[in-house]
Amino acid sequence: MKLTGPLERVLRVLLDDTSAPRYGYDLMKAARLPSGTLYPMLARLQADGLVTSEWEPPPQDASGRPPRKYYQLTGEGIRVARLELAHASAAAQRAAPVTRSPAAGSAQ
Amino acid sequence: MNPTAAVRSAAEHLIRRACRRLPAGIREECYREWTAETWAILSDTSARPAARRYLAALRYAAGHIRGTRYHPHAQSPERAWLAVPTRQRLRAVTTTTALAVCAVSALSGLAFMFPVVRSAAGGFGEAFGNIVGIAASVLVSVIFLVDRAARRRRSADDEPGRET
Question: Which of A42, A50, B31, B97 makes a 20 to 30 Å CA pair with B139?
Answer without folding.
Answer: B97
